Amino acid sequence: MTCYEDELRSERDYVTGLYTRLDTERARAKERYAAALRGDGTLVERDAEVRALAKEMQRLDVADDGLCFGRLDAVSGERLYIGRIGIFDRDNDFEPLLLDWRAPLARAFYVATAAHPEDMRRRRQFHTRGRRVLDFTDEVFGRPSGDERGGESALLAAVNAPRGEGMRDIVATIQAEQDAIIRHDHTGVMVIEGGPGTGKTVVALHRVAYLLYTQRARIERHGVLVIGPNPAFLNHISRVLPSLGETNVVFMTTGDLVPGLAVTAEDSAAELKGSLKILDVLSAAVADRERVPEQPLVIELPDVTVQIDVDTAKWAVEEARGSGLPHNYARKVFRETVEWVLTERAVSRIGRGWLSRSDKGAWEELRADVLEDLEDSAQYMAALDELWPVLTPQTLLAELYESRERLQAAGADERLWRADGAAWTVSDVPLLDELVDLLGRDTAADIAAAKAWEDEADYAEGVLESMVAHEDLMDDEDVLLATDLLHGEDLADRFTERDNRELSERAAADREWTYRHVVVDEAQELSEMDWRVLMRRCPSKSFTVVGDLAQRRSPAGARSWAAMLEPYVPGRWVYRSLSVNYRTPAEIMSVAAAVLAEFAPDVEPPESVRSTGVAPWRRQVSPGELASAIEEFVRTEADRDGTCVVIGPPDVPGAVAAADVKGLEFDAVLLVEPERIFADGPRGASELYVALTRATQRLGVLHCGPLPSALAGLSEPSITLQP
Question: For residue 457, how far is the Cα from the chain centroid?
Answer without folding.
Answer: 38
